[in-house]
Fold:
Amino acid sequence: MTRIGVVTSGGDAPGMNATIRAVTRVAHSEGLEVLGFERGWDGLLTNTFRMLTPRNVGGILHLGGTILRTSRSPEFRTVEGVQKAAETLALNNVDGLVVVGGDGSLRGALELSKMSDALIVGIPTTIDNDIFGTDETVGFDSAVNTAIVEIDKIRDTANSHDRVFIVEVMGKKRGFLALTIGLTVGAEVILVPEVEYSLKKIVGTLEENDAKGKKSGIIVAAEGIGDTHKLLREIEEKAGVEVRLSVTGYAQRGGNPTARSRLLANLFGKKAVELLLNEQGNRMVALQEGKVTSIDLKEVCSNEKQLDLSLMKLAQTLAT
Ligand code: F6P
Structure:
């Protein structure tokens, strides 16, 4: 192992830069050269990269986004695309590749590992925290904190106006972000795609709260539950209360990574390089029960991470 590559792919997440820095600096300390492929998988399709050195990854630890930039590459989803990427790795004598990204990127990494002689290691980096085999992904904590800051402010105006707010958060088709955000802001209602919501139940909760003297409320809804504008109209109609909608949106993807996201980036970056040095490819770095470990990429891609629904119950108990 003398040359490795690093690529950030799919939706960006706070901590991607910290990950690039950690991989580069640990790799260099072990005498490895590092190529940073640009614009996600597109960089491997067009052979576009820059050499990363301990110096030129300086000053990026605290920055959101990714200095290598990213993309969602339709061409890489084809067999020809993956083949082309494998050829790029061979052409540049890349012995190992670190893929930094979420579920689509890790699936891509698995496909590439079937066609390339280079060893492939994934680092789970997505705000969605929806990757099987790891308790947490780089970027999740930052996105949660971004939403919390916003919702705490919304709580002030909700209280002043006796209003109910629906706050729509990201998470694609999963509710990991919504559940953690809902629990940590004391949301009166949390809606996740994993549990079909009942309008009757939502209205019932709001009415019970009203009777207890709680005139305002926060409903944290995952984007994956469907049309939140429609939900707003339905709640207004049935509960007879004023409802507003606030979409946290892409702000959750940006901003400075939290300490937690930086720490994970550092630990995961180090582990990824260690795996490559130990000739262990086809794996994803993971956090399991507080320990940094690794798991077979195939296992990651063929299983679905489960949402801890007991936390929904706890959130309900705490929001009385
Ligand atoms: O996977 C991260 C994420 O931000 C999701 O939460 C969201 O559904 C999706 O990416 C948005 O994707 P795009 O950047 O393609 O609009």
Notes: The mean pLDDT is 97.
